[in-house]
Specification:
The two termini are 18 Å apart. Helix 2 runs parallel beside helix 5. The protein has a five-stranded mixed sheet, with helices on both faces. With 209 residues, it is an alpha+beta fold. The protein has two domains: 50 residues, no CATH class; 141 residues, CAP (Pathogenesis-related Protein p14a), CATH 3.40.33.10.
């Protein structure tokens, strides 16, 4: 007589865990981005300290900018530092016709950026041996070619990525043209995944009842 009751008590935590799994997945997928290493974190903090001295608000981390900076850094990591001018300036603009960075359109697509509505956005790679944070930061803040963007109030978001001797800063705006809004396909894929998880959850709960 007690077996059904015991089973019920045992299964409830299991059902609860099934309910929490999609929530955990969503939290991991859509939570605020964090920089993945100490050098990137140090440079990002230094850039915002510099912005403060210019009476500008700090840059916020943008997940799609982080994604793009990681992809670009990986793309150019084997390029010798003396070729840094080849990638400057690199803009993210409608049509994805920027030819400075190889396979840029592929990286834009992977990060779910809607290139058709993006006209503002800039990619700023720096190459420094062993990515010494102080020297990297100096490149961004004491070189007019980079500082002109950091001094521009229209840029409000950023992403940082690094590979080998390369660090890549991607700047975004808070306007529709530069916020790196997701592509339609990215929205559709996210919705499809959410519906699939929800359907599986309902099936499992009904099966356990």
């Amino acid at each position: 007589m007690c077996f059904p009751l015991t089973l019920k008590i045992t299964m409830e935590p299991f059902k609860l865990s099934l309910f929490l799994l999609p929530l955990l997945f969503a939290f991991i997928t859509f939570s605020n981005p964090v920089l993945c290493n100490d050098k990137e974190d140090s440079v990002f903090k230094g850039i915002n300290s510099y912005r403060q001295t210019q009476n500008l608000p700090p840059l916020n981390q943008v997940s799609k900018a982080n994604c793009l900076s990681d992809e670009v850094a990986e793309e150019i990591e084997k390029t010798p530092c003396e070729n840094v001018n080849r990638f400057y300036p690199s803009t993210v603009s409608g049509g994805g016709n920027n030819l400075n960075i190889p396979n840029l359109q592929k990286h834009i697509d992977k990060c779910g950026i809607n290139i058709n509505t993006t006209s503002d956005g800039v990619i700023l790679p720096v190459c420094v041996s062993k990515l010494e944070p102080t020297i990297v930061l100096s490149n961004y803040t004491h070189s007019d070619r980079y500082a002109q963007f950091l001094n521009n109030s229209k840029y409000t978001g950023a992403g940082l990525g690094s590979e080998d001797d390369w660090m890549v800063l991607v700047l975004t705006t808070n306007t529709a043209a530069g916020s790196f809004s997701p592509s339609t396909s990215a929205h559709a894929n996210a919705a499809s995944v959410g519906l699939l998880i929800f359907a599986l959850l309902l099936l499992l709960i009904n099966h356990l009842d």
